[in-house]
Design goal:
Blueprint: H1 11-33, H2 47-63, H3 76-84, H4 95-109, H5 117-134, H6 140-149, H7 155-164, H8 176-194, H9 200-210, H10 226-234, H11 241-259, H12 263-266, H13 269-272, H14 300-307, H15 319-330, H16 334-351, E1 360-361, H17 378-386, H18 390-412, E2 418-419, H19 422-434, H20 438-462, H21 469-484, H22 486-489, H23 493-508, H24 536-551, H25 562-569, H26 584-595, H27 603-611, H28 613-629, H29 634-650, H30 654-666, H31 674-679, H32 688-700, H33 706-722, H34 732-750, H35 781-789, H36 800-816, H37 825-830, H38 835-841, H39 851-863, H40 866-872, H41 892-903, H42 920-933, H43 940-954, H44 960-973, H45 988-991, H46 999-1003, H47 1024-1029, H48 1032-1048, H49 1064-1079, H50 1088-1108, H51 1124-1143, H52 1145-1148, H53 1152-1167, H54 1180-1193, H55 1207-1232, H56 1238-1244, E3 1254-1261, E4 1264-1266, E5 1272-1274, E6 1284-1292, H57 1294-1299
Antiparallel strand pairs: 1-2, 3-6, 4-5
Length: about 1300
Amino acid sequence: SSLPMAPRADNQQIRARIRQSEMYIKDRSAAAESNWNTSDNSGQSGMYGVVGKILSVLEELDRYVFDKMDPNTNCLDVLGAKIWGPPQPGQGVTSQDEAVVTILCEWAVTNNRSGEHRAFVAAKLLELRQSELLSPDEEEEKEEDFFVTGTPVFQELLFKFLENEAPYLTCPNPGLKKQHEVANLILLFHELMAHDVFSHDSYMCSLISRGDLTNPMIILPVSSSSGKDDNAAAGLADTSDDRINDELGALAKQISETNKLDDSGGTDPGDGFGGGSGTGNNSGTGGGGSTHGEVWRYNRHWQFTYNFPIPFQQDDSSNHDINQRHVLLYGYGRGREESSKSCKKISKEILKLFSKRFSIDVNEGGKIKKHHKSEFIFSEVVQKFQDLSYFDQHFVTGQCGQSVIEMVQNFHSCAAAYLPVTEHVSFLFDLAGQALNIQCLLDWCIQLLKELPLVESQLIERGSVLTRTYTTGLALYIVGVLRRYHSVLILTDSMVKSAWESLVKISYRHSNVPQESPRHDGSGVRRPPPNLDCNSAEWCIMGYLFDLAAACPSLLKSSDKYPVLKRLFNQSPDLAMSQYNTSDQFRDMVNPYIMSPRRKVDPLLVRYLHEKPEHQYTLVCCVMSAVINGQLDTDRLNDLAILCCELTAQCSTLSAEWLGALYSLCCADKQIYSSLHAQVNLKDFSFHAPLGVFVCILIARQCFSLQSIVLSVITRALVNPWNNGDNEGQSDEESEAGARLALHLLLKLFKTVECFQPSFYSIASPRSVPVSAHDTGIKFSCDRHLLAATHANISSGIEVGAIIAVLKAMLLLGESAPRTSTDHIPNFLSSGFNEDDLATMTASARDGVSLGDLAFITLKQICSQEWVRDICLQVPDDLGKQGYLLDKLLPPQQTLSLLRLICHTNKDDNSAPPPNNKSKHYETQKVIKNMIRDLDEWSLRASIIDIKLMYRLESKNCEVGSWLEDVSQCIVESFKLGENDTSLNDNDAVVDDEPEPKRRKLDSGRSEAKSAGGKRRFGPIWMISHLIKSLKFLQTKILQVSGRVLETGNWSRGAKSRISVGHQPFLQLVLTCLRELESLNDGKGRPSEDREQVREQLLQSLHEQLSNFLCFTPEEKVYNYEDPTSRKSMQDALQLRFSLLGGMFESITTNFQSITDWSTLLVQLVVRGVVDLTNNSDLFCTVLDMLTSLIHSSLVIDRENGGGSGGGGGGERVEENRRHYMQLVKKIKKEIGDKQNQSIKYLRQLLPFPKAMEEVIVTEQFGLVPDSKGVKVRGFNCDKKQGLQVSEKQKISPWDILEGFKNPA
């Protein structure tokens, strides 16, 4: 079509026809290259390709370790390359990119995954792709200019996500799940704006042009009556078209004027603007604001505009966006003034904490003035702060954070003598965390860490009592924040390096770390370690440095500190089975510290601890007795725990003593720590709460690891009561009491801690607060952060094996111990987790619940924790290994129940035993059908490991074959259900095998988009092929069952059910199985004979099915239905089978017999009018191209048999191929016969050119006669007459004459 043409009038039409033919050729060539198994839904841009891309992206995200950063193997560049694929310059945004953008946004927002890091990862991945698309090598400078000035590449897709998928408030009291998702959305789009992937200005322009924000929000004064507020809110719903045009001009004018405001009104957003009311903190809603309860009444984009924080609010560059937002929301007048007042008031109130009056005056001995608690009521400030929008919360925290940094800088530059109180800084950190102002929070922490060494130098110079304690204490709070947001921190390499350098300076400035191992000498006998001059804060900082180095190996190249850190932290203490007499002298020395835990530790006390193990034993007994029997309030309990952390930091062998004492209590072992047992009544459960808080703080400050106490203490204690071994020196009651204590400690350690506890902050003298009055009891925010970080630390976190071990111990304890409320174990474990129901069961008192019930309740609460699910599913295949969930002590049903508890897929009671009148076959079908019904992109990985575990459990029995048959049958039968069929009842409709006719057509219109209520964008059957791709053991059986189902559902006039190409997922399932079997050729996964047998069976089945279409005679005219639905059904049935045939096309071409059989069948389909240019014409090209490939393949030399190596063998092979080809041509000619029509004309083109023979009369010389041998000789009459005589008739080809093959003479 690009070649030059002679001038003529109809050149354009001719070129158009040529281009159309070119496209036609390309389409047919592409279909042949893909083996004719493509369709509208199976290509990269089709449904199957989109679903496949989404699932592959999710798999990569789930497999990626976000707690670690290795530039070679585990970094965002590597992850981005796997997710996006290689970019092609100038290609623009493809359908695959659109799928990735959508799933990244959903992954960052959904409650089915956890972690704030998701928003940052998604933003960085989108930024990476945007830079690749906009900066090709050839025109880098030009494209960079475009990148700076143009609309972001993914702006339209992100707007589409906000329009269709994003969660927003639809009621005044949304559920916790919706609150979290709204908060996740706000964090995500804040990061997208910060990374220039989403433009707030373009978003506002789009909303203005659409008229989504035509009503400015009316802020009423606090004194306004509720009636006026209601009337104002009622007027907000008026968004009629009549007002839009009138208001657009006014809005544009207001924005223009606002952008020209002087600095006092427009530069500082806090001065002129602010959110007077909001959706509340971290939850999307809350109470207290004057119009706060009305926010949910607005449309989604109004809510997004109201809450989305604009990054870098302190910069002048963001003034336009801020002004535009405030005019659209509040108008230009009273509303703006009211919002400004509320925002400025809260900022001023929080900044009061950092004024001279509330700060530390270093010149006056570093003391903090006591104030009346009414001067600053933390709970009220927090409530007001939570009533702000997220936008205003970001502004308030940003302003306060900058003030703290300036205050610290002024001190070390000698411009001031005041330092902020560490607890007040911690309060600000907590507020910033609640506001999701995470990036700013991390920036403050890094900046403060840089300033702290200078502050320490200034304190030393002034000779202050705050030397060492202030900087390390504030650094500990910062380390708590860095641990809390560790996965976000390590995304930025410069921040990691800066934090490392500053923390090394702070922790090593005063501490004296010994250069030899403090544990053992060569004989293995423990000896007193050298004195470790290190306070608890420095110990925690060094512990974080060790974890940071393990998470970021690149740090090791620039530092020599790691070997020392590794020696200190890369070991777990053994239990100290100590049994000594307590030292009265040392007890008298310790008791004053127990009474006043805030006293400074005397170095002599530490020296005594090092000298004699009896002193350590005495200390542990005295402290534990005080914790258990002392009726301590929250403050004193926390202080005592921190004192013990200080001592343990300087005497590391105390770690083993703490573990030994806890083991003695939980296992009721009186052979060790008998002095402690003498002072403790194990049957008194009132000490569980204070002891739990005490242990939490010890673990948070790294006195010993979570792994150590779980394996060495708690698991043993849970195994103890149901173990039938001889337990000397303990009664059953004491064993049960110890197990109850172990369950309480486990729940305390594993349950997610809410890091923000405003009630613990106070500027007045601390008041006595009973421990039981608070859920956590852990006073300091840094300790709560550090405890939460122990769940998933790279180097010191708990391993999957330990978690599984303790969960199995709880399950076995619940089974063996007496129960009252949970008689049916599988039913109880398989039901969903409900906090309210469990709270009701334990409402009376925990000692009123039987031990078995308590074990099951604790098991369900722990399994409901997101971090437990995430760490167990990080490498899901490990769960099915022997020794993990596969345990001879666990019955199969309980093993499956435990897995579903961990995966949070236990809501359908899948593992409940079948009714008495139902068989195991019924149970298997019910489980699989429920699983398929609920299958989505988030539950796919759990479903894979679930079926794998079921298979491994069944493999121990002899009935694994019938189980595979049942599962395969359920999977194949699921394709009878309509796509996106959400109208099925819980169990009855799912178990019923009857198809849902035409359900797909009714739902097709609604399946285009996923509604805000969480409706799936595609049905579960689209994911079954991806499910089976990971289940190798099912693939052979799936193919066998598919062949049988295709035979029974083959197209005919009387068939009740038809499997057709309308179910493209079914086609993809079979093709996936075929591809997976083919990929095993190079491996040893399956015997070759078995694989080939399955393929041959399926091929034979397809041959029979297509042969059934030949049974109709032309007179019957069954293929010429007047009903278009019937005609379409027949075409779909044929299309499905031809697609499957294409998937196995290479198997057909391996031998001449199959080539002949299939070629004959294809010719018969055309000759008999089943597939031709008038009937099922869409398939005619497919049949024709398949036949062409088969005919040509018969002439291809088989290289594996030496045909291409030359010599005589190759020649013989060529001749054999030629002979088979001629036989095939002969057979096809026979089938075609003398029939003539347009379709058969195309078939004849595939045959060799026919020889157009012409009959000629041959003459010879007159008088020639044959002799006895048939040779012509001259006869007697030759001389009598001259001339020629007729000899014979011959058939000759004109081609032979032209080419000289035959002499016409």
